């Protein structure tokens, strides 16, 4: 399937999930994540859930990161340049929803891309090679291309991988891992 077909398929599959299923599956993903070999790192970039899109609830991941005393980085998106500015999450970080229902920091301590060691990547679908399908704007591929070469990219998904994505682009950046409620896939 191509990206357009996969976006439609997985948006529809997500819409079938109840709030309880999303919460249960998200908690299972967070627990499964604990098995990954990433916890010696310090700077973790975390996407904030878009509830309207029925995304993986990242609050559980946030709690794990805080409990492990990690530096948590969150992004603010610029839809004109398709770039993200990253901010350190602190007790003083104030958030507001943008026009796409994404919670974003209003301001704060900016974190350069070079500091980021692990990125939790939102996705709609992915394949057995670690290629992913997002919403199609290219924010994460753009951002990841500016991170250190050894940054660890972890996708979070309610679903199992597709065999392949037909129209992968040379600018698409592959995942290192994808975590589902039942399995952690490694693409390294």
UniProtKB/TrEMBL annotation:
The record's SUPFAM superfamilies line, in alphabetical order, gives: NagB/RpiA/CoA transferase-like
Per the record, the GO terms for biological process are: folic acid-containing compound biosynthetic process; tetrahydrofolate interconversion
Keywords noted in UniProt: ATP-binding, Ligase, Magnesium, Metal-binding, Nucleotide-binding
Broadest EC class?
ligase
Q: Describe the reaction catalysed, as an equation.
A: (6S)-5-formyl-5,6,7,8-tetrahydrofolate + ATP = (6R)-5,10-methenyltetrahydrofolate + ADP + phosphate
Q: Where does ATP bind?
A: 3-7, 132-140
A single GO molecular-function term is: ATP binding
EC number(s) stated in the UniProt entry for this protein: 6.3.3.2
Q: Which residues form a coiled coil?
A: none
What Gene3D superfamilies has UniProt attached to this entry? Answer: NagB/RpiA/CoA transferase-like
Which co-factor is required? Mg(2+)
Binding residues for substrate: 50, 55
Cross-referenced Pfam families = 5-FTHF_cyc-lig (PF01812)
Q: Which InterPro entries does this one have?
A: FTHF_cligase, FTHF_cligase-like_sf, NagB/RpiA_transferase-like
**Family assignment?**
Belongs to the 5-formyltetrahydrofolate cyclo-ligase family.
Against PANTHER family, the record matches this protein to: ATPASE INHIBITOR/5-FORMYLTETRAHYDROFOLATE CYCLO-LIGASE, CHROMOSOME UNDETERMINED SCAFFOLD_24, WHOLE GENOME SHOTGUN SEQUENCE
Name of protein: 5-formyltetrahydrofolate cyclo-ligase
Q: Which organism is it from?
A: Flavobacterium sangjuense
């Amino acid at each position: 399937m191509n990206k357009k077909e996969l976006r439609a398929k997985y948006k529809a599959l997500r819409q079938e999930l109840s709030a309880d299923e999303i919460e249960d599956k998200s908690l299972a993903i967070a627990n499964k994540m604990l098995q990954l070999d990433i916890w010696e790192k310090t700077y973790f970039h975390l996407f904030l859930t878009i509830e309207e899109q029925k995304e993986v609830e990242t609050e559980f991941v946030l709690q794990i990161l805080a409990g492990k005393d990690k530096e948590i980085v969150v992004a603010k998106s610029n839809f004109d340049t398709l770039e993200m500015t990253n901010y350190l999450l602190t007790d003083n970080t104030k958030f507001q929803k943008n026009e796409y229902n994404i919670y974003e920091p209003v301001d704060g301590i900016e974190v350069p891309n070079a500091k980021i060691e692990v990125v939790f990547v939102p996705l709609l679908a992915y394949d057995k090679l670690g290629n992913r399908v997002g919403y199609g704007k290219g924010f994460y591929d753009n951002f990841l291309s500016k991170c250190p070469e050894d940054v660890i990219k972890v996708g979070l998904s309610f679903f199992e991988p597709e065999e392949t994505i037909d129209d992968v682009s040379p600018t698409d950046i592959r995942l290192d891992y994808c975590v589902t409620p039942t399995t952690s896939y490694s693409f390294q």
